[in-house]
Amino acid sequence: MDVFLTGATGFLGGEILMDLAKRKDVGKIFCLVRAKSEHEAQERVRKVFFLHGDFYDENRIIPIAGDLSEDKLTETLIQNKSLDSTQTIIHAAANTSFSKIFDTMVKDVNIEGLRRILKWSTQLKNLTTFCYVGTATICGKNILNRVVLEEESPDVNAEHVVSYTYTKMTGEQVLHDYLSDDKILVVRPSIIMGDSRPWAPRSTVILWTLATVNLLRLVPVNPLAQLDIISVDFASQAIVELLFAKRKHQVYHVSSGMAGATNALKITAAIEPHFNHRPPFKFVNTSHVKQMVAWAKNHPPKPGDELEHNTTHLNYWNDIFESRGRLRILLFALEPYLEFMELGQIFDNSKLIEDTGIKQPLPAHEYIKNSVKYLEKIDVFEGAVDP
Ligand SMILES: NC(=O)c1ccc[n+]([C@@H]2O[C@H](COP(=O)([O-])OP(=O)(O)OC[C@H]3O[C@@H](n4cnc5c(N)ncnc54)[C@H](OP(=O)(O)O)[C@@H]3O)[C@@H](O)[C@H]2O)c1
């Protein structure tokens, strides 16, 4: 089976590429990569393999230079006759930014870029499966503190925390404009954080959130709100297993479900012993975010501001931040993540487990110890300005 994969240089796509490359029933893997030349595309893919010493077979792994935001992408792919053998497309590339500054780009890459790939896919005579990597969070912010089923999305009335999830929802709808139902597979990961294996995760996406919370120590979120978090190795294994499984459904959550659920209290408790030099974690109500932002802007406290009772943490912030503006940058970037954490959504994964037979994933508070040593290496400010 020849596969065309987008997003191979990313966090999840890189793992999917490694898992596919190890399978004997996978033939060529064409990887769409942003690069100025085929040579640069090849170097970028080579790096993906070298990160953990995986074998890079140049005869099987074929980089294709291309950008989802280029108008000519469809035409370029159509003209490349070597791609005609493609049987499976895995579309894992996306612009995953939560920042409003990038909204136009997010929309263009995630919706128009998808259309560009879909238009090309309709020309492929051998195509059997188009696997669209969506996100479970398309269910929106009105669902609170309960288990969510696949059938509940896409819901056009869902309210979105960030435009990114709106574009991912629209992406699911767009698939049907181009492909028949039998060719569509939608996989919806929940929140992918870190790697459950004892090595450097391919990317610090989401782990940035934990590194920031770990630095701040005063955390404005409900510590008991349920969180659906999975490791990147589980996400990749689940998606690749689904590709080869006898599937009974078109849409699957790739998620922790209730069996692997966690919460902020359990995750911070798991990392706390490794950072004794910092004040203990303290959870406060989300209403504190506004007070924290005001404090970071040097505004005098308002009467009744509860934040002022947290002197240990405020003194600690004065010590660690060169200026309060630095704290403001972190809080600004962290806010949408805190909003997601507060929702208490768990995504049912029984369809995935039933159809693939894979084991339930380890809860994040159990595997996160493998990422502890990488947390301090994350430049939280860089992550905040370049989300
Ligand atoms: N991480 C999560 O928690 C999570 C959860 C649910 C769903 N997902 C979904 O999983 C997929 C992968 O996410 P991720 O976390 O792996 O993101 P990521 O690490 O940011 O990787 C994104 C990938 O998309 C590529 N890409 C971005 N813009 C592109 C463009 N204009 N043209 C071509 N390629 C482009 C990137 O290429 P460059 O290397 O050139 O930037 C990179 O390979 C996405 O579809 C995302 O929506 C992720």
Can you characterise this structure?
There is one protein chain. With 387 residues, the protein is an alpha/beta fold. It has a domain at 2-198 and 227-261 and 345-367: NAD(P)-binding Rossmann-like Domain (Rossmann fold), CATH 3.40.50.720. The protein is built from 15 helices and 15 strands. Strands 3-2-1-4-5-7-12 form a seven-stranded parallel beta sheet, sandwiched between helices. A two-stranded parallel ribbon has the order 6-15. Strand 4, helix 4 and strand 5 (129-133) form a beta-alpha-beta unit. Helix 9 (288-296) packs antiparallel against helix 11. The radius of gyration is 21 Å and the shape is globular. It starts with a strand and ends with a helix. The model has no long low-confidence stretch (mean pLDDT 96). The structure holds NADP nicotinamide-adenine-dinucleotide phosphate.
